[in-house]
């Protein structure tokens, strides 16, 4: 049951990424680039998703546990440290260069285009390298 | 490549992303951070990586379904030389691992929770991505 639900949830998430256009690197790059080709779609995607999640967090705050599992599995990290900043700078560099973040990178694997396969392999390599630090 | 501003499909897509994050949190108490999910499945196979595997399966199935039924929705290419694709991928992988999150975990799920870490992370990677895209493009 849980396995099927997880596939469904992943499917909805993936469909959202595709319909929103965020799996097209050009749309992300055009959002990030100032000029007369500016494409503000990404802001709408983020704003709508965040708005829904704000309501969800309000609900979560009143609950002891999730509906189908024993505990909430949430980060309790608070510290703003060098890892957070350096990591975000590196991610920003990679995202600004390519226009792809991990979700769209994963979905675009199904295109079987060499460039996306290469990108995702490099993402895994980067994760492996960072774990060594 | 020129792209159109597409507010309606952006809103529908954003709503689906928000609904998926909501289901994961409300039903199972988990945060939909894609970089963390990818890391747990591919970079370390621990006993708790099963749900992440199914989530990724669903994500890929969405891609397959769209490729079969509406292939034009899944357009997109990476117009970069291969060495730069590798550099960008390494940066995304290493950066999201160090920062413990990306656009989904910090951006959508963290900022809506008013997590200071997520706001700092998202503002940082947005700003750096903005500068990078303008310098390169």
From TrEMBL, chain A:
Residue stretches spanning the membrane: 41-61, 82-100, 106-130
Keyword set includes Transmembrane: yes
Entry-linked InterPro entries: DUF6691
Keywords from the UniProt entry: Membrane, Transmembrane, Transmembrane helix
Official protein name in the record: Sulphur transport domain-containing protein
Organism: Pseudoalteromonas arctica A 37-1-2
């Amino acid at each position: 049951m849980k396995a099927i639900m997880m596939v469904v949830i992943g499917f909805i998430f993936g469909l959202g990424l595709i319909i929103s256009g965020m799996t097209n690197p050009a749309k992300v790059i055009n959002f990030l680039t100032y000029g007369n080709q500016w494409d503000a779609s990404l802001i709408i995607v983020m704003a709508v998703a965040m708005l829904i999640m704000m309501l969800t967090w309000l609900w979560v705050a009143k609950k002891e546990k999730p509906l189908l599992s024993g505990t909430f599995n949430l980060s309790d990290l608070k510290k703003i440290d060098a890892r957070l900043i350096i990591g975000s700078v590196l991610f920003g560099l990679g995202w600004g260069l390519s226009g792809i973040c991990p979700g769209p990178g994963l979905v675009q694997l199904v295109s079987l285009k060499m460039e996306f396969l290469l990108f995702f392999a490099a993402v895994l390599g980067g994760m492996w390298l960072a774990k060594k630090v | 490549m020129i792209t159109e501003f597409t507010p309606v499909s952006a809103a529908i897509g954003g709503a689906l992303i928000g609904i998926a994050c909501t289901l994961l949190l409300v039903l199972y108490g988990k945060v939909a951070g894609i970089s963390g999910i990818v890391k747990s499945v591919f970079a370390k196979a621990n006993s708790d990586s099963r749900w992440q595997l199914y989530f990724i399966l669903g994500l890929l199935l969405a891609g397959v379904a769209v490729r079969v039924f509406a292939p034009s929705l899944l357009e997109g290419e990476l117009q970069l030389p291969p060495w730069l694709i590798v550099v960008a991928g390494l940066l995304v992988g290493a950066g999201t691992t160090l920062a413990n999150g990306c656009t989904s975990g910090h951006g959508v799920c963290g900022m809506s929770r008013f997590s200071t870490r997520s706001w700092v992370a998202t503002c940082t990677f947005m700003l750096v991505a903005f500068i990078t895209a303008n310098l390169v493009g």
